[in-house]
Design a protein that fits this description.
Elements: E1 8-11, H1 28-38, H2 55-69, E2 75-82, E3 85-92, E4 100-107, H3 117-135, E5 143-149, H4 157-168, E6 172-179, E7 192-195, H5 199-211, E8 218-221, H6 228-232, E9 238-242, H7 266-284
Parallel strand pairs: 4-5, 4-6, 6-9, 7-8
Antiparallel strand pairs: 1-8, 2-3, 3-5, 7-9
Helix pairs in contact: 1-3, 3-7, 5-7
Length: about 290
């Protein structure tokens, strides 16, 4: 993630700890994906990743994600926006006749010499599991575009290319939700930050937490240095989801060789994954 300072507005949700509050176990599929992306295990044959920064390693990652997302989407393809730049796109069709779309996404690249476990294999894993859950729903009143962005670390290159594409195509987009860094929770409060959410999205995320009987803080920030900005700049309603970066409970391994599989808090990632699944059940039911 590219980071800048931002202002935050804390909203504390003091709700009885029931429902999803007891479902913070790690998802095996997320552990497997993060393991492969970080070189903890081989991604292809005997090949293990050291980072996802070079054109070669990013293409290897894109091809792997394409195979995985193709297993449950209605269509999957590479959005090749230049010779060495590839976003991975999966399409999950609505169950009703509609021209409305929701975009969910995360960047899969890392900086050089960094395994990129938290930044951003965790976000990639959350979006993967979220998309898989969405594909299983009986009711989807919006089409869903699942996008894994290339070259975020080089200045939001992949997300800017994709945002321009759907803008030029005139797609009717309900909202855009991107995830970047969701694997660190030292204080154990399961807090998250929503980056630049619209008023409508603020209400949505808060109401789902309340309805599910959750107790965890949701902060709002004005951080604009990751993929949601590419969409906001073109007029889309977009927000980013992240751990408590502005509120100082964020990984100390940011952009370092130590950002490894072993540093990921999988319980936290699993909890927020299940929470976002409920958020999208609410979005897609309307």
């Amino acid at each position: 993630m590219l980071r800048k300072s931002g202002l935050t507005y804390l909203i504390s949700l003091l709700i009885a700890s029931s429902g999803l509050a007891h479902q913070g176990k790690a998802l095996p599929e997320q552990q497997a994906l993060i393991s492969k992306l970080t070189g903890h295990s081989a991604i292809d044959g005997q090949t293990k990743m050291t980072d996802r920064a070079s054109a070669e390693s990013r293409k290897l990652t894109a091809d792997y994600l394409l195979r995985e997302v193709n297993k449950f989407t209605d269509k999957a393809y590479l959005h090749t926006y230049r010779e060495d730049g590839n976003n991975v796109v999966g399409v999950i069709n609505a169950t009703v006749d509609t021209d409305s779309y929701v975009v969910i996404g995360a960047h899969f690249d890392s900086v050089k010499n960094c395994p990129g476990a938290n930044d951003n294999a965790t976000g990639t894993a959350l979006i993967y599991s979220l998309a898989k859950h969405i594909s299983s729903l009986d009711q989807r009143r919006h089409n869903v575009l699942v996008v894994f962005f290339d070259e975020e670390e080089k200045g939001l290159v992949g997300s800017r290319a994709y945002a321009k594409l759907i803008k030029d195509e005139g797609l009717k987009v309900h909202s855009v939700h991107t995830v970047d860094q969701l694997g660190w929770d030292k204080d154990g409060d399961r807090g998250i930050e929503l980056e630049m959410p619209t008023d409508e999205l603020q209400v949505l995320y808060r109401s789902v937490a309340k309805n599910e009987g959750l107790e965890f803080p949701i902060h709002y920030s004005k951080v604009t240095s990751t993929d949601h900005r590419a969409f906001r700049d073109l007029g889309f309603k977009a927000t980013g989801i992240t751990e408590e970066y502005v509120n100082k409970d964020t990984t100390p391994h940011y952009h370092k060789e130590s950002d490894t599989y072993e540093t990921v808090n999988f319980e936290y990632l699993g909890f927020i994954t299940r929470y976002t699944q409920k958020v999208f059940e609410a979005i897609l039911s309307k």
